[in-house]
Each structure stands twice: as C-alpha cells, then as structure tokens.
Amino acid sequence: MDIIEIKNLSHRFSDGTLGLDQINLRIEAGAFVVLAGANGSGKTTLIRHLNGLLQPSVGCVKVDGVSVQKDPMRARRLVGMMFQDADSQIVGETVYADVAFGPENLQLDQDQIRKRVALALKVVGMTAFADQRPHLLSGGEKRRLSIAGILVMEPKVIVCDEPFTSLDYPGVRQVLKQIIALHQAGHTIVVITHDLEKVLAHCDRLIIMQKGKIVRDGLPGEIVADMETFGVRAPCAFQLGRKVRALLNLHSLASCVG
Length: 258
Prior knowledge:
Low-confidence stretches: 240-254
Number of helices: 9
Distance between the termini: 59 Å
Shape: globular
Number of strands: 10
C-alpha cells in the first residue's frame, strides 16, 4: 500500500521561480527512502508538501489516501518532520515540555499526554533528560529530542532533512541508530542527506533530484554509479572501489604489454 502518492506536482515560488516541475511519486508504507540532489534541486521543497507547509501550484499530494490540501492537520499528524536546524524545533523550557507541546495542541487529556511523552522519551533513550533545559543538550541529543517530539504525535511517516549536519561522530551514531530503529518498528522513513555513506546501506530506495525534477529513482546499487552526474558525491567506498578497479585494469594492461 502506498502511504504517499504525488501526482503532477509543480510548485512555483512568489518570485516566479519554478521549484518543482511535474513530480510523480509513490512511496510504499514501511519503505526507507533516501532523497539526494545538489543544493537547489528541490528536495526540501518537495518534502514540505507532504504535511502542507507548502501548497502545490499544480497537482495533488495524498498521505494515506487523503489529500494534504483538504486536511493539512491530519497530514501533520501522520507525517513527522525533523528539520536540519534542531534548535528551530525547540519550543519548551524543559525536555518534557518540549515533547508535550504537540499533544497539548491536540488538546489531549493530561493522562494521555503523560503516557505519550513517557513512551517517546523512552524510545529515544532520553527519559533521564526530562527535566533538563533542551538548549543545553548536545547536537545529537537535540536531534533525538526532535525525534521524540515527532514520535509523540504517533506518525506513520518520518521525514529527516539533513539529520547529520554539524554532528560529531557520537552524535551521528546516536541519530542513525534511532532512524534505523524507527524503520524497523514499521515507520516509513524519508531522509534527505548529502552524507550518503551513513544511510545508503540501510535504505531500499534512492531518489535523485535535479532542477525540480526526479532524474533517478530505484535501488541504490543501480543508481550510485550515476549520481555524480547530477552533482551528488558518491560514497567513499564506491569511489575507492572505482579507483581500485582502475588500478587493476592498468596493472592488467601493463602485464599484457610486458
């Protein structure tokens, strides 16, 4: 079953710039999709249509069979968004208050809110941080807090926009571990990232965008050889493998000439 269905989606900004050009895309429930492309290719513009942060100029976006335009609040409950700047999503004075912000806006009763917040913090391993001030957390902890703030809304889709930006190695490990665990728990995952080395082995689909269009879409192993054509740096392992193959070919040629 498709959890996301996009038909003929185009988006033109107020200055006349065409951000998306006739996008057609389906994403199955439970998929792990990586969305890549050079800066300005339309990746963030595309994902902002999934929960109504942007509205189509042309076309339609459906989440779990319902148009985002017709019911944006439903889409925002089903599609959780983790933005590149974790600080921009912090709204509470404590970790607990920050996670509770979403369900409070849904006007849930306090007992439900406590249960949801407790579970979300437990999932990301931050129960002990409940009374701490979120702005004092490390980069990796702030990203995990963002994930808790998404989980508390009980979404079906989790979208991560450059989740590894500015993180040190321990922070990257923390966030990647959480993303993989969320996928294993049944969530549909969409990750925008330039750091393909970190996620390519875990995803089942790679989409590359260029100039507002989808130019490649398929299994990562089938696309990785073409990605640098579209301004996306290939994973280091692939680059090393290519160099090794080239050296082996040169050695083989030298042996033949000798």
